[in-house]
Hints:
It is built from 25 helices and 14 strands. The protein is α+β, with helices and mostly antiparallel strands.
Amino acid sequence: xxxxxxxxxxxxxxxxxxxxxRVDARxxxxxxxxxxxxxxxxxxxxxxLLIQNSGRILTKNEMMTLVWRDTMVEESNLTRNxxxxxxxxxxxxxxxxxxxxIPWRGYRFVASVRESRDEFDVIDSLAVLPFVNESSDPSxxxxxxxxxxxxxxxxxxxxxxxxxxxxxxxxxxxxxxxxGRELGVRAVLTGRLRCLDANVLVSVELVDTEDDRHIWGGQxxxxxxxxxxxxxxxxxxxxxxxxxxxxxxxxxRLARPHTENSEAYQAYLKGxxxxxxxxxxxxxxxxxxxxxxxEKDPRYALAYAGLVRAxxxxxxxxxxxxxxxxxxxxxxxxxxxxxxxxxxxxxYDWDFAGAEKELKYGIELNPNYAEAHxxxxxxxxxxxxxxxxxxxxxxxxxxxPLSLLMNQTAGNVLLLARDYDGAVAALRKTLELDANxxxxxxxxxxxxxxxxxxxxxLAEFEKVRSLAGTNPMVDASIKALIACVYAAWGKRTEAxxxxxxIQSPPMTTPYSIAGVYAELGxxxxxxxxxxxxxxxxxxDLVSLKVDPRFDNIRxxxxxxxxxxxxxxxxxDSSSDx
Length: 577
């Protein structure tokens, strides 16, 4: 019997159903009772292979050959991924409902599988472009931007609709056709706001980007205080026009208002408007308006989520964590806050199990929230789950393709995974979007150093120094990275010279200084500085397990003891598989 092995996307949409599960072969998605069950690419490949050959024994060699086509892998890779799949299906290995283990041979899918096909093209992706303020009054600009952002937030909660994030969609103001082509979405929503006496006139149009066909449009003449109810109406009508099948949870999410207080909502929109400027002054102003929104409505969870973002940007983790805790208390179904809380638990609490739980729950609640996938990718990479980290980084890019941060994340993850060529490609793509993005130049310098392209690495770090201006903390951190390059290059005198500049008194983190000593092969000094980083719970230490700068000292027993103290010795999702 010929083994079926259809892993790629098909023009024809094929579905497989078994028990409460439904597999969309083209979109590579598994759902349980209408809710997405996240799977890594290889785990999904194994599931698809098993169900396409339901009832037939697949040998381990067959499966490894088909799933890891051009890559030699050990049998343990297959065993681990099958175990992960069983957990995702909620299967008891002693009484298998779906996957039977055939001792010494392989596996067989034992559940009854129903196959169906759909040749109709479904509109399942959307970009909400910035609403245009047609009024001569610039003071209501916050209202046009806020309306756009609210619609993105509402629609992104739906599992079956991919919604491009704000960072990417806002680059296409007034360019609907370009947005559809370049963002890879099937529909765009455009809108206009205009003051009409004491009211606001809102006009919207939904367009199919493949043939520029008008799908739906509407006009709403409302008082400013009623604008948020108008957004609820628009969201509902878009879903109806796209003929999306919603779960009861989806319907509840769309219908639930975050506040009934129009003044609180107006303050929240102003907070978002200033926050999105992403300047220290703008974020500080946004924080003030989020506080005002909370004063108007102390139970406004989304305003607390705004505080989380603002405090995080301003490097105020304690305040951000308090705001996140309050937001979760007020609304336990706010995915953005669960994701942010998970990242705090990772960076500052070293609660790795709790961090992963919150990050995954945040994604479950809002699968279109790009930043949650970005944070989860960083977490996974730092605990050594590289395949899963790359998947999450790619998902973040897909949801926010023009975000510098989302693009850079892929490069960072690939650096930690030691895929240096892949990292270079990802970072160059990021710099194509903005040649002056300092963070990408910094990571690229680290990659070049690992590739022993030392002059190129130094050039990247010098670029970062020129972009940073006179910021002494940034300059000291870059000097530590340059010292690492000299140490790896064998230029010991130059490395020690820079170390002397930045360590007495310390001008950068103890972790960064430890990295230079590790590159120099001075293990005792490296551990001396790591031990200085530990008491203050420096968030840098969460990278110790995978940071290439410390490769020289990994065999030292003190390295594994430090991982144990941090909790990274067990912080690997594969350890329980």
